[in-house]
Amino acid sequence: MRTFATDLYLLVAAYGLALPVSYAGLPVLGQGAFVAVGAFGTLLLAAHGTPLLVAVAVAVAVAAMAGYLAGFAGARLSGASLALATWGLAWLAYAVLVQFPAVSGGSQGLVHRTPAQLVSPSLGLVVTLQPWVHALFAGVVAVLLAAMLWRATSGPWGLDWSALRTGPALADSLGVPVQRRRRSLLSASAGLGALAGAGTAVLVGVVSPTDFSPLLSLQLFVAVLVGGTASWWGPPVGVGLLAALPSASDGISSALNVDPLRARAVLTAALLVAALTLRRPVGEVVRRLLARLPARPMDEPPTVSAPDRSSRRVSSPLLRMSGVQVSYDAVRALDGVDVDLSSGEVHALVGPNGSGKSTALRVLAGVVAPDAGVVEIATHPAPRPGAAAPRVRAGVVRTLQRTATLGALPTGVQVAVGARAQENIAFLGVRHLLATPVSRAAAVARRQATAGALDLVGLGDRASVEVARLDSSEQRLLQIARAIATGAPAVLLDEPAAGMSRRQRDNLVRVLRRLAAAGHGVLLVEHDMGLVGRAADRVTVLAEGRVLATGRPSDVRQDPAVRRVYFGDPDLGSRPTAEEQTTT
Amino acid sequence: MSGGVLLQAVVSGLSVGAVYGLVGLGFTLVWSLTRVLALAHGDIVVGSVLVAVLVIVGRTPVALSPGVAHSIGLVLLALVAGVLLSLAAYAVAVRPFLDRGQRSEDVLGWVAGGVTTGLVVRTGLGLALPAAAYAVPDPLHLDAFTASGSVRLPGGGSVAVRSFGVLAVALVVAAAADWFVRSSHAGRAMRAVADDVDAAALCGVPVGRVVLIAFGLAGLLAAVAGLLDVPGRSVAVDSGVVLGLAGAAAALLGRLGSPRGAVVGGLALGVGQQLVGAWPHLGASWAPIVPLAALVVVLAVRPGGLRAGRQVAAE
Amino acid sequence: MTRRPVAPLVFALIAASVGVGCSSTPSGGAVTVVVSAPVSTSPWIADFERNGAQLAAAQLNAAGGIVFGGRSHHVVVDVRDNGGSPQRVVADARAAVAQHAAVLIIDGVGAAAVADVTDPAGLPVFVVFDGGASFIDAQARPTLFRLAPADQPMAVRLADYLAGSHPRVGILSDDTGFGADGRTALRAAFIRDKSPIVSAATVPTGAPDVGTQVLAARHAGATTLVVWAGAPIVAATIQAARTAGWSVPIWAGPTGEDPLVRQRLAGHVDWLTGVGFVSFRITAEVGPKPFATYRAAYEKKYGVDKVGVQQGGKEVVQPPDWSMYSYDTVNLIAAGLRISGAVGAPLLHTLEGKVVVTGANGDERGYLASTREGVSPDDMYFARFHGFVFQPATDDLLSQHLPVVPQTS
Asked: CB–CB of B28/B257 below 8 Å?
């Protein structure tokens, strides 16, 4: 029972670690440090006369806070850096525990009486924490966590987490608060780790630095990894494997006829390496078993019909920049540029390479801060450049230049991630766990927005298709669908036609016109002048960081300054194709 | 802190730091080519030397100057062991988690792979070398330059003469590695892969083989670092991890991807650590925390530090 | 010696004679000795802990087992890996209680934590390595015994011994619990003896070079260096002092005899001149015979522990000294069982003053109701290196008459 309870606590720590690792894709190698905070914190406080439950609560809160603070530094790191930083942290915590025995009790550790008792004089209640009480508590926590994760996967949290995991940069551009989500996951992970540490400490009655060596962090990491990606059943599988390691290594050493005690360490290490190769097969087997269960809502294609968007709204200003200057080192990329965008129009930014059109788009998207000048969204000052979420909520969304996707998530799910930006409901994730009416309404709205966006770009029938099955032009359209699902009226597209065939470009033109007709304002940077001529209501020509001309495509083409700059440029000026003339 | 103590701390810090620099150099090299952090690197540093010692000296090594044949054997075997261990770590723990362009694809995978491989090296050697610490003979005979094995410094201090030997050999080897990456045929291919793996592949650079050479070179540098560091102190099978993390900190301090930066970062880290240890108000128990804290702090303060260093030897 | 009770000795002799007279007793029972050792983290400690217990068990079994309650009992040694973790020691203690073991032998890790498990069961726990000050307490932890030298009296003995030469002392200790305890005890003892401490430094366990700290001690005018730290730091201290041309006397704690010190200094035997250490004695006044007998049996079973250096053309070997304590523990328990007739509380009661055995080195091993320390300060001695081998110091009353242990083969 005692071993079982210990394993259950280990499971709680593994569930905690699964949040950042298997849900958000962050390689966190320092969970042991937070488990140590819970264990040492609880016993230190208890030794100074704090009631046990208070000590546990304080230790867990401190660890969660530490995790949140660590998240401020850690959430900005790339995967590799985070791995190194957390591995360093695991060793640092261990070194500090060893170096300062006043905190850790040295090699003897901190001791607490077992079985511990909870005494409440006011209620006249004494609860003796027998091993079965611990097992019950840890088991309930673990089951609750599993249920929560199972439920969360189909809801708003699940959408955000899968976006964090599969494409953090893209998620950010769609308004997912990447840093904040990562911080809360790291914080929750630390808190759960500390809870497990506190529970084990009270159960066993002694903690010492040895129990929290980086080996613990490593074992937990491998356990979570073996369980696979974003699965509520992963941690139990991993912890089960960990629990089986000693007996497996004993079996091997008796087969090899070597001293089992000596061989255990190296065999355990070798089995950990071997376990890494089990990652995919284990995931496959369990997934197949689970596939027999009824599918969860998220996997269903959106069946709700799209809202009617045909009504053309009155043209209103969406986005404007004026007098913007940007310099890279000594080079002035933009030198007093004015660009604006209204609803219901397609506005193209064109110019030769190095003219500053991409920089202009990046300033409007809030990726680059202007050295001088003003950016306004719907006549209000734009939020400071940084994370994209405030921009998206203010009404501006952009697509990334390369065909980024959110991993292998189905098309409909990817668009639903974008639709999340429209949901401004407090505690929606928690509400979803409890299946409140508000959350159900939000889910319906999300499905509508998803279906609407997919219909608008013409991917309405591809919602449940895996992204890998889409061709490159459909992936471009998916990018647009994700962006407009956010509900932001101003859509900034960076070379949406790159790599498309003529027929696909024709389709793109139709999609762009539909967007404008639905009331969006589309600003695109594009090289293909034929496409610009057919799709755009307005063209702004940039050259050497200044606006050369702006106006209707046909007028701009006649502009003498434009013709001078573009002389000899086959794209613009010299010989407009017949097609362009017919379109404009 | 008196002048003599200060000078002594700086000189021994340079020697400690030169080893960190060599470890960091291998770390940086692997990162440039694959965007993978060699998390088992420190274990290879200590492991390569211990393998050679086990084979040639046996299970009770003593710090006695070995004869010529033993010296050559130890050096060669350590170098070979370093290369083989590094290549094995690559094959088992890194390669499966790279994409077709030999770049980091599955971060979770190689992170776990690297760390567990280090654990295998440690525990495996622990079977043969169970004691808390070992004395290892010095095949490079760095103590032999003066009769007492030490050099008097102005101000009353003295340092082991091997400190200068370690510093000199480390700098020469680092310079040679720098030259190799900069000027040799294989080195140019490495830089091409580091700069743009797709373009390099298009130009006919055998990316797979170049990455193998880089891992081999990193193993070689690890073995040299081990041969310099291990004979100067008491060493256990698990002494390597912290050394590897110190090397990582050195590489980060000098901006990851830059070989010269790694060496400079290592020297700075070594001197800083010795100064902290010699500082009367802090005391030596803070010294082992210095490299680990440096690692965590550098990453926290400069989160873009890893991405900043795209170039290898192109500074 | 005066504190030793005489009556228990009589009990023991009677018990022994009863044991001899019962060679025809029916066999069948088993006595379990649980050894919880840091096999995976400090295998060198685990080795002597386990070897001593297994050697004693083998000898007892060869002599027909332990006879009590009218039956002969076979001795079974159950070795468990605690990985240096008190949590796992507590788990091992639970296992020991569950299988009604006679005794739990530990290196010292977890000593402070096992009481909750072993006190209710009356299971005696023997610490056979760790000399830390904090955990031995006859009142609070009645089941916890130590059969190993305590660090604190050793440090006090060293300070008293050095006081005669009126030293100006430089202390070096490492950052382990061993180092910290030693530093505290040394400070108190030197102050009491009015020997000025001119410098005191703590160095990290893994420090490759302690030149800075040694230099500081020299600048402060130290005339004696005392280093209380793990063997690597002891070796590094000797190296730093001697390479700087400083021939100061250097005294170490019991880690001074660790083979690693000599392995590190293998190329410079002259550096060991003037180096000594305080430790527990390997031989007693009765002469070298008991230890020689023990050693022959030990080395026959486990081989010779070579240091790796040579002296006078012969290999220097390390006497199997630490393993004596787990060996003595098993023998003491066997003698106790012959009197108590049962494991648990009766055995525990017997250990409190009713049984004494002669240990592997010829010293008597036994406890009183109020004591839990099995090695008295009088059993600690001083040794100096003569080349790569050490001999008892000749200027200390309790050391000078001890026989020299041969250390070459």
From this structure: yes
Is the interface score ipTM higher than 0.95? Answer: no
Q: Are C241 and C188 contacting, i.e. CB atoms less than 8 angstroms apart?
A: no
CA distances to A426, B312, C96, C266 from B202, rounded to whole Å, are 51, 19, 67, 57
Number of alpha carbons in the 13 Å side-chain half-sphere of residue C305: 19
The topology (CATH level 3) of B3-308 is: ABC transporter involved in vitamin B12 uptake, BtuC (1.10.3470)
The per-residue b/e assignment along A223-247, b for 16 or more CB within 10 angstroms, e otherwise, is bbbbbbbbbbbbbbbbbebbbebee
Pairing of strands A317-328, A331-342: antiparallel
Here the tokens at position B260 are 């010269």
Given A98, A99, A108, which is nearest C86 (Cβ)? A108
| Closest of B35, B17, B38 to residue B27, by C-alpha | B38
List phi, psi (to 5°) of A14.
Answer: -65, -40
| CB-CB under 8 Å, A107 with C177 | yes
Q: Which of A107, A130, A250 would you mutate first to test chain C, the one with the most C CBs within 10 A?
A: A107
Print the domain residue range for A537.
Answer: 317-395+488-583
Kindly report, residue by residue over A289-307, the tens digit of the pLDDT: 777 765 554 444 444 444 4
pTM, 2 dp = 0.86
Chain C: touching chains (3 or more CB pairs < 8 Å): A, B
Q: Which of residues 58-87 of C touch A (CB under 8 A)?
A: 79-81, 83-87
Neighbours of chain A (3+ CB pairs under 8 A): B, C
Kindly state whether A205 is in contact with chain C, defined as any CB-CB distance less than 8 angstroms: yes
Measured in angstroms, the CA of C364 and the nearest CA of chain B are apart by: 31
A432 within 8 A of A152, measured Cβ to Cβ: yes
Hey, what domains does chain C have and what are their CATH numbers? Answer: 7-148+322-375 (3.40.50.2300), 152-285+380-392 (3.40.50.2300)
C374-392 pLDDT per residue, tens: 998 888 999 999 999 999 9
Closest CA to C324 of C286, C352, C363: C363
Rounded to the nearest integer, the mean pLDDT of chain A is: 84
A143 and A120 belong to one structural domain? yes
* B231 vs B63: CA distance, rounded Å: 7
Task: Spell out the residues 6+ positions from residue C145 whose beta carbon is closer than 8 angstroms to its own.
Answer: C124, C125, C126, C127, C351, C367, C372, C374
Cα–Cα distance measured from residue B166 to residue B246, given in angstroms and rounded to the nearest whole number:
17
C264 vs B63: CB contact, 8 Å cut-off?
yes
> Which residues does chain C have within 8 Å of residue A3's beta carbon, measured at their own beta carbons?
91
Rounded to whole angstroms, the Cα distance separating A3 from B5 reads: 53
Residues 6 or more apart in contact with residue C378 via CB below 8 angstroms: C1, C398
Interface test with B, best of A92, A220, A264, A277 (most B CBs within 10 A): A92
CA distance C330 to C33: 8
Cα C157 vs. chain centroid, distance in angstroms? 16
- As for how many domains chain A has, the answer is 3
Closest approach of C267 to chain B, Cα-based (Å): 5
Give yes or no for C112 touching A (CB within 8 A). yes
* C37 three-state secondary structure: strand
